[in-house]
Write a structure and sequence with these properties.
Largest sheet: 8 strands, antiparallel, barrel
Keywords: Signal
Strand order of the largest sheet: 3-5-6-7-8-9-11-12
Structural class: mainly beta
Shape: elongated
Length: 194
């Protein structure tokens, strides 16, 4: 599950857009991808042994359009929202012989785009930021916009995440043919406030 919770520290307006700063956010994803030889291990434990958490250290929510008009139309509001955030958290995938791929420092966007992480592997122990997850369809956003006393937004998020071709290639280099781009990895839900 991906649970995002945050509080706005300020807002900035641009022509036709409102940007709210995110101060804090948390997330959790339940991993269902399995490969007999490759084991999942969380670096940041979630509510189950098959989940991992992330915590935002920076981020923003952009609302494109007139907030007053969008406040009464959740469908239009959902289409007008873009979340961007970076943070901490992650997981490891490893084999019994000690080969490990470590994934940390998430940076992503919702409802489209995806999530990149710093990925360390036996072939690249220093690590490189690469796209790790994509969304098979735009994430489902269920927003609620408040105009008073200050503009704020609460959003419930639901999305599965798939491996990107780039991350599948890292896994295959480390472990042999175990993954491909588009493989289903986890199901994430959550909430964020800005």
């Amino acid at each position: 599950m991906l649970a995002l919770t945050g509080i706005a520290g300020g807002a900035a307006c641009a022509l036709g857009a409102l940007t709210l700063n995110l101060i804090a956010a948390e997330g959790e994803c339940e991993v269902f991808w399995r490969n007999g030889d490759v084991q999942f291990k969380t670096s940041t434990p979630g509510t189950s042994r098959n989940s991992f958490t992330v915590k935002a250290t920076s981020g923003s929510v952009e609302i494109s359009g007139d907030p007053a008009a969008l406040a009464t139309d959740p469908v239009a509001l959902a289409k007008a929202i873009t979340y961007r955030g970076a943070g901490t958290g992650g997981f490891e995938l490893s084999t019994a012989d000690g080969r490990t791929v470590a994934v940390s420092e998430p940076d992503g966007t919702l409802p489209t785009g995806g999530v990149s992480f710093v990925v360390k592997s036996p072939e690249n122990p220093a690590g490189t930021r690469i796209p790790v997850f994509s969304y098979p369809a735009p994430a489902t956003l269920q927003p609620e916009l408040h105009l008073l006393p200050v503009v704020s937004v609460q959003v419930h998020v639901i999305t599965p995440v798939d491996f990107t071709p780039e991350f599948a290639a890292v896994l295959n280099d480390a472990f042999g043919p175990v993954a491909k781009g588009g493989d289903k990895f986890a199901f994430c839900t959550g909430d964020f406030n800005a």
